[in-house]
């Protein structure tokens, strides 16, 4: 059951008034809150993820999810339940396919949470993670304790919650107009459905108040792994009138010889990213024996390596390349190179460094026989 296909609706249409603004778009450990959950759902095998956003939020959301496949945006409604209904209507799943409904404000979702939830859906109408209430509960009135409430059998509901799509749609159709359910399990319960409780996870906390972000930052930091990779590439000089370096064409009285465009800077960067990811080298992904790569633009190679990082939920944090040659002079082109690398990798300009040096006439670079590039890539997983 845990390997079955599923769809997901991520509710990201709230105003976040208690958190001081639209919390789903605030950065958490370097990326927007809403993106954390969407990436987790995709990694777990979601066939399609519908992100329900507030009216007018298409531009901002489009930037956040532009590089993710199988993600669609749908406009939400005035209430959470209306937003969920809009998301369900946007799915074209088979009637009995599982659908997970998740609040974007719970960003620390993991694929293992999703697998456990799907397995729990067997034989019931829904499944949801929950935590037992551990604190003593008090009912207050006029600033005073009015009553102590028994916590026996009480649970704190979390998301995602899993249902058969047909079951959830039918339950919403029967839900009384004018009432506002606080979660989807309540809708299925009201229709007479049985919803299974599974152990929740404190890390699935909901970001509600500004102080919640400090806790989430600490938890997110514990989940990240920083890796560093290095890349080295060299090409010999040959007859020509221009050379490609770090994605920039430079007029020159020679060119670098290679199977592709021989851009040693981008080749070294590609190998550095692949090395940090543990995915071999550029020759494994783009073998020079394959004629389709003859004369190919090397920006495709770096973009491919960066996409592999994102495919496993990671991000490239920094790229640094050093070009070693006597000629051409690199400094006049350095800022253009930085800008081009940043564009290819989807990074801010200050996350890219391009440097150049000579070997004072020593070695093959000093003799003008070739050019050497060395690169370091830092990624976060």
Describe it for me?
The protein has 381 residues and is α/β, with parallel strands linked by helices. α11 links the parallel β17 and β18. α5 crosses α6 and α8 runs parallel beside α10. It folds into two domains: 216 residues, Spore Coat Polysaccharide Biosynthesis Protein SpsA, Chain A (Alpha-Beta Complex), CATH 3.90.550.10; 155 residues, 60s Ribosomal Protein L30, Chain: A. It has twelve helices and 19 strands.
Please give the structural blueprint.
Blueprint: E1 6-12, E2 27-28, E3 31-32, H1 33-43, E4 46-53, H2 58-65, E5 71-75, H3 80-89, E6 98-103, H4 111-119, E7 126-132, E8 137-141, E9 144-149, E10 155-157, E11 161-164, H5 165-174, H6 184-190, E12 195-199, H7 212-223, E13 226-239, E14 242-245, E15 248-251, E16 254-256, H8 264-277, H9 282-285, H10 299-311, E17 315-324, H11 334-345, E18 352-357, H12 363-366, E19 370-380
Parallel strand pairs: 1-4, 1-6, 4-5, 7-12, 17-18
Antiparallel strand pairs: 2-3, 6-11, 7-10, 7-11, 8-9, 13-16, 13-19, 14-15, 17-19
- The CATH architecture name of the largest domain reads Alpha-Beta Complex
Shape type = elongated
Largest sheet: 8 strands, mixed
Report low-confidence residues grouped into runs of 5 or more: none
CATH superfamily of the largest domain: Spore Coat Polysaccharide Biosynthesis Protein SpsA, Chain A
Between the first and last Cα atoms, what is the distance in angstroms? 28 Å
**Whole-number tally of structural domains:** 2
């Amino acid at each position: 059951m845990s390997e079955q296909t599923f769809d997901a609706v991520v509710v990201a249409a709230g105003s976040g008034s208690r958190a001081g603004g639209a919390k789903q778009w605030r950065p958490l450990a370097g990326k927007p809150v809403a993106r954390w959950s969407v990436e987790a759902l995709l990694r777990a095998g979601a066939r399609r993820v519908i992100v329900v956003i507030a009216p007018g939020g298409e531009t901002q959301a489009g930037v956040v999810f532009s590089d993710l496949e199988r993600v669609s945006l749908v406009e939400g409604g005035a209430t959470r339940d209306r937003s969920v209904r809009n998301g369900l209507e946007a799915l074209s799943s088979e009637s009995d396919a599982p659908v997970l409904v998740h609040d974007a404000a719970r960003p620390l979702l993991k694929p293992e949470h999703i697998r456990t939830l799907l397995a729990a859906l067997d034989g019931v109408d829904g499944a949801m993670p929950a935590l037992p209430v551990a604190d003593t509960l008090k009912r207050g009135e006029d600033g005073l304790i009015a009553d102590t409430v028994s916590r026996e059998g009480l649970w704190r509901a979390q998301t995602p919650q899993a249902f058969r799509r047909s079951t959830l749609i039918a339950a919403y159709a029967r839900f009384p107009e004018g009432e506002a359910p606080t979660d989807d399990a309540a809708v299925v319960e009201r229709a007479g459905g049985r919803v299974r409780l599974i152990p929740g996870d404190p890390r699935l906390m909901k970001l509600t108040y500004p102080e919640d972000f400090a806790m989430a930052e600490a938890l997110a930091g514990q989940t990240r792994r920083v890796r560093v990779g290095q890349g080295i590439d060299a090409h010999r000089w040959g007859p020509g009138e221009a050379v490609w370096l770090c994605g920039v064409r430079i007029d020159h009285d020679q060119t670098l010889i290679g199977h592709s465009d021989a851009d040693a800077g981008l080749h070294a960067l590609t190998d550095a990213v692949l090395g940090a990811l543990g995915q071999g080298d550029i020759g494994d992904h783009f073998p020079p024996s394959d004629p389709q790569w003859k004369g190919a633009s090397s920006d495709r190679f770096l973009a491919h390596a960066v996409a592999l990082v994102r495919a496993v939920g990671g991000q490239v944090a920094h790229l640094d390349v050093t070009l070693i040659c006597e000629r051409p002079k690199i400094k006049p082109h350095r800022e253009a190179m930085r800008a081009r690398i940043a564009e290819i990798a989807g990074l801010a300009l200050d996350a890219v460094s391009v440097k150049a040096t000579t070997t004072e006439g020593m070695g093959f670079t000093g003799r003008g026989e070739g050019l050497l590039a060395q690169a370091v890539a830092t990624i976060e997983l």
